[in-house]
Amino acid sequence: MRSRSPFILLAIIAFCLIPMSLAQGSQPKHAAGAKGVPVAAVDVSLDGSDWRVGSFDFDEGVKAGAPAESFNDSAFKAVTVPGDTQIQAGFSGVERWFESKELIAVNAHEWWYRKHFHAGAKAAAGVTHLVFDASDYFTTVWLNGQLLGTHEGT
């Protein structure tokens, strides 16, 4: 992460959303700072209505440059996260659960959720947890073009 840049871009590949957090598990809530002094971690919630979502054929998002901070996502749809990919793609009610040609087409793509945000001075100075209240069963997380990690499971 470039500490000089006031804006951060986060891109996530997702198909539908389920609960998860990158700040979960056995990760420490703080890390040793200068001279061993504990540094409090900063949690940055990524929930909100300022996300954009778009889809690509499988394995095409990275080739198209979607992880890059400079990627033009203006054709992506504005959405709220956490959310549901099927609803965000226009399905409603029980139709999003019935196997249809249209729903199969939605599920046959990788979905990229992108968000531009300012993490703040506290985040730049220490340990930062990026908190997701939802993610897909299979998720890949990028920050400013750098792969942060992947998630598989519920």
Care to describe what's here?
The chain has 154 residues and is mainly beta. The protein has one domain. The chain has helices spanning 85-88, 101-107, 121-125; strands spanning 8-14, 30-32, 38-40, 42-45, 48-57, 77-81, 109-117, 128-131, 138-143, 146-152. A six-stranded antiparallel β-sheet has the order 6-5-7-1-9-10. Strand 9 and strand 10 form a beta hairpin. The longest helix is centred in the C-terminal third of the chain and has 7 residues, at 101-107. It is globular. Residues 1-8 and 14-31 have low confidence and may be disordered.
Strand fraction: 35-45%
User: How many β strands by DSSP?
Assistant: 10
Strand order in space, largest sheet: 6-5-7-1-9-10
Structural class: mainly beta
Nearest-integer average pLDDT = 77
The CA-CA distance between the termini, in Å, is 28 Å
Low-confidence stretches: 1-8, 14-31
Sum up the overall morphology in one term.
globular
Gyration radius from CA atoms, angstroms? 17 Å
Number of domains: 1
H-E string: EEEEEEHHEHEEE
Biggest beta sheet summary: 6 strands, antiparallel
Residue share in helices? 10-25%
How many H/I helical runs?
Answer: 3
Features:
single chain, 154 residues, mainly beta, six-stranded antiparallel sheet, two-stranded antiparallel sheet, 38% strand
